[in-house]
Design a protein that fits this description.
2 helices
Length: 93
């Protein structure tokens, strides 16, 4: 079905147009999440925080040159990057 199958402005036409828009938005979000992701780890630097002994990460962002999704992982000095990644991403990246 398409919105054009019903009279312009009808409830049916508007409902189908909304469903199509929702489906397109869902597909766009899925494509965004499915992109290759990269983690950049900084074992020394860290954001200002009262809990400097816990790893944390930035929000995902798009890198300028490669269009990959990236985030910054802050790693406490006494922790390995692998251990910090397991804590911050318990379900994997």
């Amino acid at each position: 079905m398409r919105p054009g199958d019903f009279p312009i402005g009808s409830p049916e036409s508007r409902a189908i147009a909304r469903l199509i828009a929702q489906q397109q938005e869902y597909e766009r979000k899925q494509a965004w999440l499915a992109r290759e992701k990269k983690i950049v780890a900084f074992p020394i630097l860290g954001p200002p925080s009262s809990e400097s002994n816990k790893p944390c990460r930035s929000q995902w962002f798009e890198s300028r040159g490669s269009n990959k999704l990236c985030c910054i992982l802050w790693v406490p000095p006494d922790m390995s990057v692998e251990e910090a990644a397991r804590i911050v991403f318990p379900d994997g990246v």
